[in-house]
Automatic annotation (TrEMBL):
It comes from Cobetia marina. The keyword Nucleus does not apply. PANTHER family: FERRICHROME IRON RECEPTOR-RELATED, HYDROXAMATE SIDEROPHORE RECEPTOR FHUE. Its main location: membrane. This is TonB-dependent siderophore receptor. Belongs to the TonB-dependent receptor family. Residues 1-34 form the signal peptide. Coiled coil: none annotated. It holds the Pfam family Plug.
Amino acid sequence: MKKVTVRGRGLCGAGTRRLMIGVGVVLVSLPAQAEDATMVLDTQRVTGLRLYDMASSEQSGGYSVDAATVGSKVPASLRDIPQSVSVVTHDAIEDQNFITLDQLAARTPGVRVLNNDSGRSSIFARGYEYDAYSIDGLSAPMSSLTGSVPSLTAIDRVEVMRGPSGLFNSTSELGGVINLVRKRPTDTFQGAISGSVGTLDDRSISVDISGPIDEQGRIRGRLVTRSTEQAQWVDDNDNTLNDFYGALDIDLDENTELSLGVIHNTKDISVNQGQPVDGDNNFTYGRRSAFYGADWNSFESDATDVIAELTHRFSSRGYGRLAARYSDRNADYEYAYSGSALSDTGDLSSVAGYAGFTDETSVSVDASYTQGFDAFGNQNEFVVGVDYKTSDSDTTAARTSNLTGSSASISELNSLSYVDILGNARDGVSGYSLSRTETTLEEQGLYGKVTLRPVAPLAVILGARVSQFSAETEDKLNGGSSDMQDTAVTPYGGLVYDLDADHSLYASYSRVFEPQTREGEDGDLIDPREGEQYEIGIKGSYLDGALNARISGFQLTDNHRAASSTDGSVSYSVDSGKMRITGAELELAGNITPQWDVIFGYTYMDSEVLEAGSSDALLMLMPNNMVNLWTQYRFEGNLLDGVSVGAGMTALSDFDSTQGTIQAPGYAVFDAMLGYQFTPKLSGQLNVYNLFDREYYVRAGSASVFNFVGRPASAVATLKYEF
């Protein structure tokens, strides 16, 4: 008989192991062994959708999971998803002390972050920005302007798909999809309180309590709060986050569950826009703490997400899910910043100012049904569903390019008297401009996907989506509006072939489109962006799934990307033509031994303009080469029992500013960690950043702003007590 190698859980009856594999049940009979019985065991990999009740990474531990929900409607094996997917687990988040998504992304293989204030950065993959993020598969917009980059307080793991995912996220960016999977209430009571303090005035305190609420355990709850003062190595750049997360899971019956969650976040930031360069467009490598802003610079935001999910397991081996997410964000901001490069004397010839506020709401609803069926002597699956998304953003903004009326030194800028930028713009003061724009996006979609296995080692994945979308922008001050409506069909195809029990070859084709809300010279909206990707690769799973590996190559083609006009006298957008991005990735993540964890990634990427539009949108911000490494070892059973040591490296090759006028040298930065388990409930951890105090710039912007220096050598100590 054969041994079936799976990663499942649950037992039923003596001598029979019941393994829940997606929509199917595999029964492996294990007869009682007589003394003279001999069993010959072979190994084969069971394919198919993974466990509906996939264990959280908090429960499973380590740096590896063998399944993900991104790009799927129920958990699917990483080897059965024919695209590049990385999963950053609960342990990896804690060990590297990530607070916000942009901090995590900066150390995730294949992902590039254009740094700003923590929680206000831009996240890219394969040359394109993630302009949305999902929570449990439900999308909402994300942007640096509104500060809607989320914190990770409520999150168990982060799933990052690189490349288009047009089947379930048709109007997403070409860079891919980021899905945050919530921490869920636990079956048994658990709690933790932790606090940290750092050398850069950073500090944090959090409380996490979870468990059953009623005696039967049918109702389970979780409450998490955290208050954080982010690291500050630039003068006057305070950054405070406050998070609240509450969740309920309710068993309506043995097959039906209702899940509710609320996530609330506030940010209070003294805005830093980076440093200017000198008159020759060179970095100054001056004081890393230099703050080119006024002491009244401010950004305040308030964000709430409400999530509801109803799931049901049908007796037919089907699985149904109805889920919705409502997001409400508002942000107020006003700040002064350098308006020019530095003069020979080190002064600024001008000081610029920006102020405004944004109110944004979005709704995402998804209903899907997944069903397994037997054909070709193998298990197959299909999923069908409908979804609806809408977002409405109302932004008022005021600008001025000469806030002081004359040149200013950095000290004069720091002590600049408060200026009511928004009030002056509303009053029509000369040199100030005012705008108010309302943007509405709406989409309805019908999708379907089938996974067929005509022979046991081969999975053929075919899918399509029909979307109807509309986009509208309205000038609330001057009148006038632009709108667009259309219907699009988005195909998807993939192949996965198991070479053996440990390796799979894969290939995929995916498309995506995205309505654009920027207007051309004629006042009409730029045509929707269209993109497609071809990807091939090989995935490996080793040590019973504890270690995952991937080597992949990809080619992306992008059409109609809106870019700012080169005509400085008039503000409008242009079609940037057609671009092609090619690249390759290598990734290794998981546990080499039960005590040794590792995350490693290498990415190569190159871009080429195939058809130049009115403005060539070269992706110069992206380096050709990126390397990420983090590894940790926990000692057990010797003199160092309870000690953990970790080390990591982030390295980038040279990169330029968007216009190519500012060149930034590549760099490699090393981090370290030391942990100790004092008692079964009390643990301590010391994270050290930029171990060798390397001076470097993480981002190249323009002559006046967005040139950000990297974090200097610093440390954060954390204590955690679990009960």
